[in-house]
Specification:
This protein is α+β, with helices and mostly antiparallel strands. The protein has helices at 4-14, 25-40, 42-45, 50-61, 69-85, 87-90, 94-109, 150-154, 298-301, 314-317, 327-342, 357-367, 373-385, 389-404, 415-449; strands at 160-166, 170-172, 178-180, 185-191, 195-203, 211-220, 230-235, 259-265, 269-274, 279-286, 289-297. The strands form two sheets. The chain has a seven-stranded antiparallel sheet. A hairpin with a 7-residue loop joins strand 5 and strand 6.
Length: 450
């Protein structure tokens, strides 16, 4: 039987998710590969529960080494059993196949039998050592480096911006544009040098173009001496209070605590603080769907790595025009139907999924008394889906704005603001065309005189 030292070396060489002190550089490389794979192919990788198996095995083998080889083998067999149970949903998943090979390698290196107890691994609690008085130690400097505190390293107050994504779904961009989008499937919300956020949206009602967020993945990229690369993944009925590897901070670097997860309401509200980039993220589950809100310095927002691949960065550029829904027209049509019925000029309209226009307006007024875009998005969602939880999704989205947006004068967005923005955009285009026309005429005039 190999010694504890030999087994530690074997675990490191195996390069798998035994994340105690024995996990070496190869384990970290595997973790990085998995994180990138999961981000690029969320529809394949995140449908299976292989990360849960990895986290359970990690919890059982992290910290101090097992006192007996039989305990380690029991944990390994439990891991193998968990991985086998995911075979149906994880077939073709890279993480699944890496786990299979990793388990085989570790069983061979530690002479573990495939037959034996497979009780669920639990973290072992070591008995406390006997009390021994220790001489006083000199105070140590435990403060994180300045580079891991965004405002301190910047030496000036940054300009904070906000992006929110909620409901059917509605998008508030970093530039305070408000849109309603289709965007079915996987779409990037944020993508810059420091982190990436991707959502997966599914249809709310069969046959409807409106969708809502059922999965969300956030990748925090490793940053100097502050944090290791970390991935957070949430989906309907699974809003974890930890990263995918089971940890709650940025890893083992000196500034690791500048990235932390805080569970506000179990299963409903999680907040991620990334102080090293001055960023706060709020993830909620309201009803069956997820909402997302972020507060981020403008310099971080625009720290893109490749300008040519940023067109689908929704929080910065908004949804593509082909993916936008004119919910104002939808609402106007519903209001016209309601008014015609009230005046006796039309037959009583069938409620939209259980809500008439008046009923939807009254319900949204209960939580959103100001008739801003959050109120109108609430009415749209109720008419389209009939799901009362969308009322609370709009309410919490506005509450997050009040906490995360740095300009209190912009907490509410009104339709007149959106129309003014459209008119300004149209005027800018006309002015540009006029300047080009003048330039062409001037050039032709000069050519004639020459």
């Amino acid at each position: 039987m190999p010694s504890q030292r030999e087994r530690r070396g074997a675990l490191s060489r195996a390069g798998w998710m035994v994340m105690g002190k024995g996990a070496g550089a190869s384990a970290l490389e595997v973790g990085k590969i998995l994180a990138v794979f999961l981000y690029l192919f969320p529809a394949v990788s995140l449908q299976c529960k292989i990360l849960k198996c990895n986290s359970d095995f990690w919890a059982a083998t992290s910290g101090s080494e097992p006192e007996a080889d039989v305990e380690f083998c029991t944990a390994l067999r439990a891991y193998s059993s968990c991985v086998r149970r995911t075979a149906r949903t994880c077939r073709g998943d890279l993480a699944f196949h890496l786990a299979q090979h990793g388990i085989e390698d570790l069983m061979g290196q530690n002479n573990c039998s495939k037959e034996g107890p497979t009780s669920s691994p639990r973290p072992r609690v070591q008995p406390p050592p006997p009390f021994q008085p220790q001489p006083p130690r000199p105070p140590q400097n435990t403060a994180e480096p300045d580079v891991c505190h965004y405002e301190r390293s910047l030496q000036r107050h940054p300009n904070y911006t906000h992006c929110g994504f909620f409901g059917d779904p509605h998008l508030r961009t970093f530039t305070d544009d408000f849109q309603t989008c289709k965007v079915e499937g996987a779409w990037p919300l944020v993508h810059n040098k420091y982190l990436s956020v991707q959502v997966t949206n599914t249809p709310v009602v069969p046959g409807s173009s409106a969708t809502a967020t059922s999965k969300l993945t956030i990748i925090f990229k490793n940053f100097q001496e502050c944090v290791d690369q970390k991935m957070y993944h949430a989906e309907t009925d699974e809003l974890p209070a930890a990263f995918a590897d089971g940890s709650k901070n940025g890893g083992e670097r000196h500034g690791a605590n500048t990235l932390q997860i805080v569970e506000k309401v179990p299963g409903q509200h999680v907040e991620i603080q990334a102080r090293y980039i001055g960023t706060t993220i709020v993830v909620r589950q309201v009803g069956r769907y997820l909402t997302f809100a972020v507060r981020m310095p403008d310099e971080v927002v625009r720290s893109v790595e490749d300008q040519d691949n940023q067109d689908l960065y929704l929080c910065l550029h908004g949804c593509p025009s082909s993916q936008r829904i004119d919910f104002r027209a939808f609402r106007a049509h519903a209001a016209a139907e309601s008014q015609a019925q009230a005046q006796g000029r039309a037959a009583r309209p069938a409620p939209h999924h259980g809500f008439t226009h008046q009923a939807a307006v009254a319900k949204c007024k209960e939580r959103l008394p100001v008739e801003d875009m959050y109120f109108h998005s609430c009415v749209f969602d109720l008419l389209l889906s009939g799901d009362i939880n969308f009322t609370m999704a709009a309410f919490y989205a506005l509450e997050d704005v009040k906490v995360l947006h740095s300009n209190k004068d912009k907490h509410h967005i009104f339709e007149r603001d959106m129309r003014n923005g459209s008119h300004k955009g149209a005027c800018s285009v006309l002015l540009l065309l006029l300047n080009l026309l003048l330039l062409v005429l001037w050039t032709e005039g000069c050519s004639t005189h020459l």
